[in-house]
Amino acid sequence: MTRERKCPWQHRQVKAALVLALLFSVGAASKLGAVGARLPNQDPEGIARGDAFAATADNPSAIYYNPAGITQLEGVQVRAGLYLISADSSFTSPTGAKAQTDTSFQPVPQLYAVDTLQNLPLSFGLGVYAPYGLAIDWGDQNPFRTVVERGRLLYACVNPVIAWRIVPTLSVAIGPTINYSQASFKQGFSAINPNDFFHFKGDDVAFGFNAGIRWEPLPQLAFGVNYRSSTTEDYHGTTETGPTGPFPYFPETPTSASIYFPQYVAGGISYRPTKNWNVEFDLDWTEWSKLKQVVFKGTPLGNLPLVLNYKSSFMYEFGVTRQLGKGYFASVGYLYSENSSPDQHFNPIIPDANLQLGSVGVGHRGTRWDWAVGYQFAYNGGRQVSGNVNPMVDGTYKTFNNAVNISATLKF
To answer: What total number of domains does the chain contain?
Structure first.
């Protein structure tokens, strides 16, 4: 794992070049449960299969799931999609105090383009998507307002890739990721003064890469591996601090904070017993263990740490697709996502828990147009948090998310 290099003299140009990507991804902030701030749901065909798509990877969204898969595509293809999620996290303390997050739908767009050359074993792709995102609002008067009130993360990724079909059964791919992010965080200071607050907002550009390999030794069997490097966003922005105790109001004090976004790797096996069936299992690992804390530096109150002490975690993904004839297909999937946040440092800014996710979808592939629709729910009946360093966080957290993804592909 190599720390990305940042070039200060390029920062402004790169930031300007990513304005379109940010506007496209302006809604790319989702309330998440068990995958930290990750957004693994990047296409309805993948979502409907429980995101078990690394070995199949046979549409332009392979740029995210496994870029080596784009060598399976012909000519020029452009795919646009929209992921809509309504998330519901609730809290009940041991004394009966309650809180609930805003459940409004949030949009996460995706855009992919692929060009496979006719006379060379090369394919080129460009993806614009949001591999991370978080927006959560517990309200100003929640029982743990001195820990968190609300937070928002926008993370827009521009990802060009090049894939090489070494032999008809083996392809590899690699490409840089250019990631523009905005972050904001708000909390209170005391239960005595309900109007005091600390509010940070900042942005940064970071660079990384993703890579993939796909091997199909038999027509019935395929293997795929996708890797994404870590990045660190060094946010530069400001804080506002409201009146608390002896501290007056401080408007927009220059502040910085760094957030580590982990490396992760997903590997899958796809088995096609007949031309009408595709069964895949994927294992997805994220190195959250290097995300220890976020320190807000230069605030009027000094350096303020947000301790997380995450642990690395797995997602177990399984999906089945059935071809129905005349280009139509249907899929079902299941995903189990492990909790990454220990009780001692659990923070409701990301209400992490073990999640059960189920999904279903349908679609059609035609000569000029493809389309797909996927539905997914995520459920945890109640995570019990106890022994937290902030006792007001102890209690029961429940999660139920509903999400729909739609997409269409135009072939030239």
So the answer is: 1
